[in-house]
Amino acid sequence: MTSTSLPDSLIATLPGSSYTDPDLFAQEQERIFEAMWFCVARASDLPRPGAFRTVDVGRESLLVTRARDHSIRAYFNVCRHRGAKLCTEETGEVKRAFQCPYHAWTYDLNGKLVAAPNLTKMPDVGRTEYGLVGVHVREWLGYVWVCLAENPPSFEEDVIGAVVERLGDVRAIEAYGIDNLAVGKRIVYDVQANWKLIIENFMECYHCATIHPELTEVLPEFADGYAAQYYVGHGAEFGEEVKGFTVDGSEGLDRIPGVSEEQDRRYYAITVKPQVFINLVPDHVIFHRMYPVAVDRTVVECDWLYLPGVVESGKDVERSVELFHRVNQQDFDACERTQPGMSSRLYAKGGVLVPSEHHIGAFHAWVHERLGTRQPE
Ligand code: FES
Ligand SMILES: [Fe+2]
Fold first, then answer.
1. pLDDT value at 2 more than 50
2. Is 129's pLDDT higher than 50?
3. Looking at ligand 1, which atom is closest to the CA of residue 82?
4. pLDDT single digits (tens) 141-190
5. What gap in Å lies between CA 229 and CA 268, rounded to an integer?
6. Residue ranges of E strands in the chain
7. Same domain, yes or no: 289 and 334
8. Could you tell me the residue range of the domain that residue 55 belongs to?
9. 8-state DSSP, 128
10. What separation in Å is there between the alpha carbon of 197 and the centre of ligand 1?
11. Do 212 and 361 fall within a single domain?
């Protein structure tokens, strides 16, 4: 028996409080962002040993850097002495060590404690034992993924598996050689909306005809409201007159050589829970990372990746970038328009999903499962 009898066409969303309750957000931070693989940076953002970036994952600040052996390391950004935030800048570069601004405890790029005032008079202080504490790091698709859990879930299952589930085969994404592409453009969006609204929006295309005129012009099948993510392995085909994935359908950039005939002139979208969206088109890849900051605020960093030759030659990527930049703005505007409604008494029990959105129900079930909460009957 369902407590609210819905017609067969509709299934319930999460209740409004899922998008507004700070306690629930804290649980999501603990059980989702701090427990799963979380994409923190493009590896090329750390070009040399000592280059660093700080990033919040769940409730923790992390310091991500490149060690002397060129491997990427991620540490809790917390001094082992008395807990000061070690690095306060968002990005930067140190020569060989991180020095705490409080009492000058100093750690090398491997996290080892290498200097501190009077340290020689404390020979019993273990340099590794009191070094920075690292978290698990993986590199894939040219991005750095971290996991704060002591025993991380399988990267192969959770991250690579999400791509395989969507595309049917890992070779389908390998064809784009994403790790070798160059960042042609990066735009950071500060979105006043809960991260789940952004995922839900990305998963459906029921809104495409209403808010994405440029996108539906390029991908006419989107006008029907069925998202590219609805069918396994399906990529939305470019319109007949369309030359490239650009704001006006004009010619795009150099096609990525590995892209197959089957993948040519098609758009594929992939969601890697909890915070990554990947969009594949023949000449570029659009890669989103969400950084949930608060229950009603999410920073989204979006990279447009092209063949290195395209970026180096200074080719004009403007019309190419403009298409998805507009899509992003249109989507994030919609999410921001939705966020206030989440705290309306009208939405206390949530809203409804139409058939072309029913797959979002699986996302909601996943949220319940992660939080150990039960879906209302
Ligand atoms: S808190 Fe960092 S050196 Fe004291
Ligand atoms: Fe959209």
1. no
2. yes
3. 1
4. 999 999 999 999 999 999 999 999 999 999 999 999 999 999 999 999 99
5. 8
6. 11-12, 38-42, 51-57, 60-66, 72-76, 91-93, 97-99, 106-108, 113-115, 136-140, 143-147, 182-191, 236-237, 266-272, 276-281, 284-294, 297-306, 352-353
7. yes
8. 38-142
9. T
10. 39
11. yes
* 163 token code pair: 């791509």
DSSP state, residue 292: E
Residue 232 has pLDDT above 90, yes or no: no
Q: What pLDDT, on a 0 to 100 scale, did the predictor assign at position 233?
A: 85
CA of 266 to the centre of ligand 1 (A): 53
Find the mean pLDDT for residues 9-29: 98
Ligand 1 atom with the smallest distance to the CA of 83 is 1
The answer for residues whose C-beta is within 8 angstroms of residue 50's C-beta and 6 or more apart is 65, 66, 93, 94, 95, 96, 109
Residue closest by Cα to atom 1 of ligand 1:
82
177 and 262 within one domain: yes
Q: Answer whether residue 10 is part of any domain.
A: no
Same domain, 172 and 108: no
Is 105 touching ligand 1 by the criterion CB < 6 Å?
Answer: yes
**The pLDDT value given to residue 230:** 62
Question: Which of 142, 159, 184 is a domain's end point?
Answer: 142
From the CA of 216, how far away is ligand 2's center (Å)? 10
Lowest-pLDDT range of 14-23, 215-224, 228-237: 228-237
Question: Ligand 1 pocket check: which of 75, 78, 99, 103 to mutate, most ligand atoms within 8 Å of Cβ?
Answer: 103
Residue 150 maps to a domain: no
For residue range 282-337, what is the model confidence (pLDDT) as tens digits?
A: 999 999 999 999 999 999 999 999 999 999 999 999 999 999 999 999 999 999 99
CATH classification of the domain holding 250:
3.90.380.10
Q: Are residues 322 and 269 in the same domain?
A: yes
CB of 103 closer than 6 angstroms to any ligand 1 atom: yes
pTM listed for this prediction: 0.96
* Ligand nearest to the backbone CA of 324: 2
Q: Is position 152 within any domain?
A: no
